[in-house]
Write a structure and sequence with these properties.
- This protein has 196 residues and is of the alpha/beta class.
- The chain has a domain of 134 residues: 2-Layer Sandwich (Nucleotidyltransferase, domain 5), CATH 3.30.420.10.
- It has 7 helices and 5 strands; from the N terminus they run E-E-H-E-H-H-E-E-H-H-H-H.
- Strands 3-2-1-4-5 form a 5-stranded mixed beta sheet.
- A hairpin with an 8-residue loop joins strand 1 and strand 2.
- Helix 1 packs across helix 4 and helix 2 crosses helix 3.
């Protein structure tokens, strides 16, 4: 692999939900083994993502998925937790990349030259691949949490603040996997006194 510049794409999934961890993936694609159909994971159907994820894991030179847990999100805020998950993913790669390209505005501190690219998940194949792995890994984890906490409907909304999720929160209260620092959850824990 002499003279080959190894570029690692990085993306996250799960910044917006009210429950569950935030995930991040790092992927170094093999230029000699391209993958058809890579795109921003949000523009792909669940079925397309599920078909592409094992192909990415099989053909990439290296890949890793990492998380920041709910207590970390509540402690350091969602942006810092996302960067932490991204950092963990990059450092978990079994090949050290020469450059890290990150979807969005911010780069995790990895000690590797990095560049943030707005809408990078639709511009850079390695970031697209990372977005697919981050999303499918988190979705699978939310299905596991659905088994533990069936009242909330995580299998359907993956923790995002849908009307059904908010209704379930009001009915069943806040679970151990809800993000207490997020406003809809925080307000349920400390309701405002009624104006009188």
């Amino acid at each position: 692999m002499t003279n080959v510049v190894l570029i690692c794409g990085v993306d996250e999934a799960g910044r917006g939900p009210l429950a569950g961890p935030v995930s991040a993936a790092a992927v170094i694609l093999d230029a000699n083994n391209p993958i058809e159909g890579l795109a921003d994971s949000k523009k792909l159907s669940e079925r397309q993502r599920d078909q592409l994820a094992p192909i990415i894991r099989e053909r990439a030179l290296a890949w890793a998925v990492a998380y920041a847990e709910v207590d970390e999100i509540d402690r350091i805020n969602i942006l810092q937790a996302t960067l932490l998950a991204m950092r963990r993913a990059v450092l978990a790669l079994n090949i050290r990349p020469h450059q890290v390209l990150v979807d969005g505005l911010y780069c995790p501190q990895t000690g590797i030259p990095s560049q943030a690219i707005v809408k990078g998940d639709s511009k850079v194949a390695a970031i697209s691949a990372a977005s697919i792995l981050a999303k499918t890994a988190r979705d699978a984890l939310m299905l596991q949490l659905h088994e533990q906490y069936p009242h909330y409907g995580f299998a359907d909304h993956k923790g995002y603040p849908t009307a059904a999720h908010l209704a379930a929160l009001r009915e069943h209260g806040v679970s151990a996997v809800h993000r207490r620092s997020f406003r809809p959850v925080r307000e349920l824990l400390s309701p405002l006194p009624l104006a009188g």
